[in-house]
Amino acid sequence: MPNFTDRALLLKRTPFGESSLVVQALTERHGRVGILAKGAYRSTSRFFAVLDLVDTLELDWQSSPRAELCTLREGSIAVRRAAIPCSPRAFRAAASVLELTDITSRAGQPEPELFALAEGALDRLQRGTEGHDAVLARFELGLLRVLGLPPALESCAACAGEAAPVDAAGTRAAFSAGAGGRLCRACAEEARASGRRVGTLPLAVLADAQRLGQPDATSSPARLVKVRDFVERFLGYHLSVRPKSHASFLASPNRNAPESAE
Ligand SMILES: [Zn+2]
Q: In CATH, what number does 3-129 get?
């Protein structure tokens, strides 16, 4: 039976039987795998206290053509991220990164970009040098790029032309998740006529989202909350399931609605 060794992030842990654990892991080169860790809850097990969320692990597993689950042979911690479980906010953000990775990864398909993106977000949460809204917004924009669904932030999503402001004050652009992002006035009217929902977003929020594509770009905490708000709504529109970890943040009314002060 073939053996594999790879770096892995655990996406889900499910107790199995008396003392075993089933983990869903995203590996760096082999994509997503379901692995049974026999006896992982026994204190004498060599996997005991190894299979934690948020760490990067080095796993050695065996697959069998007759079994749905692979079997763990060896496991060790490659990168320990001990600061994340100590902070409830950091842990919630990490859980959101892992949930989104779980929703968007597919079995039997290498996803090195997704792995690097998720690992990078966990590293940032471990370092704690930037706010969780920034880490999440950056991860979610990166995820949209990996999925081939990056929102148009500067030019028109439909015609690639200039997408000038559409309000009298000149501070807001037309935006439609269904149409792929920012729209020029003509394409916004066309999208509306074809039944799509078209709203508007502050130019400042779109500009800050664009800047988050650079690794060290920063923004004000208040602005980052607004970036995260539209990015999570955009992501929610394009994913077939609504992430549980988005529910409480998105329970607030749209933070980019026209009447809110920008
Ligand atoms: Zn256009």
A: 2.40.50.140
* Lowest model confidence (mean pLDDT) among 34-43, 84-93, 184-193: 34-43
87 Cα–ligand 1 center, Å:
44
The residue ranges of every structural domain in the chain are 3-129, 172-250
Q: Is 243 helix (H, G, I), strand (E, B) or coil?
A: coil
pLDDT, one tens digit per residue, over 230-246 is: 999 999 999 988 899 99
Tokens of 120: 């990078």
In the reported structure, the alpha carbon of residue 242 is separated from the centroid of ligand 1 by a whole-number distance in angstroms of 29
Do the beta carbons of residue 6 and residue 30 sit within 8 Å? yes
Cα of 184 from ligand 1 centre, angstroms: 4
- Stated as kind and residue range, the H or E segment containing 122 is helix 112-127
Which residues are bridge partners to 205 per DSSP?
A: none
* 192/160 Cα distance (integer angstroms): 18
Distance, CA 190 to ligand 1 centroid (Å)? 9
Q: Collect contacts of 170-173 with beta carbons under 8 A, ≥24 apart.
A: 171/202, 171/203, 171/204, 171/262, 172/200, 172/201, 172/202, 172/203, 172/258, 173/200, 173/201, 173/203, 173/206
